[in-house]
Amino acid sequence: MKDHVLVAGGGIGGLACALALARAGVAVELLEQASAFAEVGAGLQLGPNAVRVLDDWGLLEDLQACAAFPDEVLVRDAHSAKRLGRLRLGAMALARYGQPYATLHRADLHGLLLTALQRQAGVRLRLDARVLAYQAGPSAVQVTLENGSSVSGAALIGCDGLYSRVREQLLGVQPLRHSGHLAYRGLVRSADLPRTLCHKAVTVWLGPRLHVVHYPVRQGQWFNLVAVVHGVLGQGHGGPPGADPQSWSHEAHAGDLKRALGPVCAELQAMLDAAAQWKLWPLNDRAPLRGPHEHAQGRVALLGDAAHPLRPYLAQGAAMALEDAWTLGRLRQAAPAQAVPDWPALLARYALTRWQRNARVQNRSQRNGTIFHASGLLRWGRNTAMLVLGERLLDNEWLYQGPPDPLASG
Ligand SMILES: Cc1cc2nc3c(=O)[nH]c(=O)nc-3n(C[C@H](O)[C@H](O)[C@H](O)COP(=O)(O)OP(=O)(O)OC[C@H]3O[C@@H](n4cnc5c(N)ncnc54)[C@H](O)[C@@H]3O)c2cc1C
């Protein structure tokens, strides 16, 4: 019998999962609902933990060809412009973690993984293939697609994002957590910015009930801007109420953003004014994972946002999806070289390796949101802690040293 696995979803997580499994000799069938892989999204950050995964897959050169590698994270006050904290990246990240810190356009990471996948034997990429349901039997999983057809494989990995159908069937309907935060995002060509604003840095501006992050992408030719404010889609933000909550790209108006931010320092305002167009998406997530059973059961596993959607305040959404995928690939590579491994056992080990780390990142991401937007005493405490503890507060050694090797724990 062939070792054939189904992957639902072709985002960063799905492509990475398919690549990791194909590299381990598995025949993969990837089912993506979209009719084409379009250039969607904007910037993403990849900590050294995520770059380590890409390096292990031989993709570091491809990353270097499209990413930027900031020298530092700068934390500043959105109103006074004062510097609150700094974390050196660049050579320091390399020395500390053996890998750089990268920032890039989501479409570039997606394209890089897609190209790598297309070079692999044994991969079938299917577009217009929307997964509706699955049936798990003793030796296979059968998936039903929206067009009425069905496919089966030895296992199913649900990489179908925040609104995952696979998750819904595995764990039942669970409500999303609405953060009450909206992310406005824009891209600015570096050539259109005053030189003083073209820092090779991840700059994080903090203010009460708001924060703004910008960093270079596309080898520094563009800057990605994300401004997070409190509000509700359709109520003073974006179009009329009733917009598709699953869309990543609601039309947004600079005037709404300006009103929501209020007065900010001149430097930040100049950066925001440089963006010709804004898109908007509401930030929703789920409660952190409570155990390995929420990551995998039997022949079905969840990966990336389907398992552990993240608020973007630790910038680890794509990184955790890459780590999940790498872990699966490594476990499959180490499985006995029989035709079809014991997939339920392998997926159980995957879930055991991943769930606590992913839950920790979910918790930290949420906590960062509260700290970033703090006012009053909490704000004072945050700024004082950054001053006193410096880089120790901003660095995340436990995170950037990853991913943990599933084979090391025995
Ligand atoms: C269009 C888009 C734009 C994004 N832009 C940004 C951004 O600018 N910045 C940022 O930080 N993060 C962005 N993200 C999120 C980020 O990519 C993810 O948080 C992270 O990379 C984890 O990826 P994922 O593959 O788990 O989930 P996702 O990236 O959400 O991918 C899920 C994939 O599954 C597909 N899918 C969903 N349901 C089904 C189904 N039933 N059957 C088959 N396929 C299905 C979706 O079409 C999608 O391709 C974006 C995600 C998407 C989908």
Write up what this structure looks like.
This protein has 410 residues and is α/β, with parallel strands linked by helices. It folds into 2 domains: 1-35 and 127-176 and 287-369, 3-Layer(bba) Sandwich (FAD/NAD(P)-binding domain), CATH 3.50.50; 46-119 and 177-285 and 373-403, D-Amino Acid Oxidase, Chain A, domain 2. The protein contains 13 helices and 19 strands. The protein has helices at residues 12-23, 48-56, 60-64, 90-97, 106-118, 165-171, 254-261, 266-273, 317-334, 343-372, 376-389, 391-394, 397-400; strands at residues 4-8, 27-31, 43-46, 72-77, 83-88, 102-105, 123-126, 131-136, 141-145, 150-153, 155-158, 177-189, 201-207, 210-217, 222-230, 250-252, 278-285, 296-297, 300-302. The strands form 4 sheets. Strands 5-4-13-14-15-12-17-16 form an 8-stranded mixed sheet. Strand 8 and strand 9 form a beta hairpin. The longest helix is centred in the C-terminal third of the chain and has 30 residues, at 343-372. The chain is globular, with a radius of gyration of 21 Å. It starts with a strand and ends in a 10-residue tail after the last helix. Residues 8-14, 31-34, 40-42, 44, 106, 130-131, 159-162, 165, 185, 248, 304-306, 312, 317-318, 321 line the site of flavin-adenine dinucleotide.
